[in-house]
Amino acid sequence: MSTHTAQTQLQLLGKLVLSGELHCETGLHIGAGKGSLEIGGADNPVVKDAFGLPYIPGSSLRGKLRSLLENAMGLTSPAELVYLSKRKGQEVRIHQSDRPDDEICLLFGRSPGRVERVEGEAIETRGASPARLTIYDAPLDPDSITAQMRENLDDEITEVKSENAIDRITSQANPRTLERVPCGARFRIRMIVDVLCEEDKALAARLLEGLRLLEDDALGGGGSRGSGRVRFSNLKLIWRNRAFYSSGGAERELASAADLAAVQALANDASFGEKLAN
Known about the structure:
It contains seven helices and 13 strands. It is globular, with a radius of gyration of 21 Å. It is α+β, with helices and mostly antiparallel strands. Helix content is 21%, strand content 28%.
């Protein structure tokens, strides 16, 4: 539980930098939309960068972590949700509150202004909460797509999964295809937690909780049908205090080549805050 209050003063103490690898344990589909389709191509292509390589958008990873943490913390009841969009059939509801100790709003940010709740009276947030968490786009490690894998892929880098929806009355098939990054692919991840006060040092443990939840959930589309199982490894956690930025001071390596469980144990240790010296 956060110890932030309305009187907590914010001033940069430093940044926690978490980097490492995300492994695809099953095929991964993060869609690029259906703006353009090639003849014979998949109905649902994956998002790719300017070089034609799949990547994981930071927004996709960030949004999934937020959703998992909101569920884990019991913040998805109608009274805890607000509308980002109320367009019919395209409603978007997320958690937001005006509580100064709300760790979701501290990690992911909070904008001032009037926000309509899903249930109950609208809330009027007077002060903004800067987002402490930044998640960058995760590029594909091309070396993770081996020559043996390429021999069996539908494209040079991706696979096409065919699916069928069956009408329960007529038994008519409705085939569809899904482009996926194959099992075995690796992506390079990078996340930064800004520590703006002593109380922020506990937010690293909340982020790592979200990553542990993700390993037993799914990233991207088709998760309930087998896609999107991921695993984190080879993690590195670095602390860069304010002197690192102001006068070229040294950074402190807190973990290297570690698995997620080891980094989480480090962040949950009672002495973790002492390691983040100014």
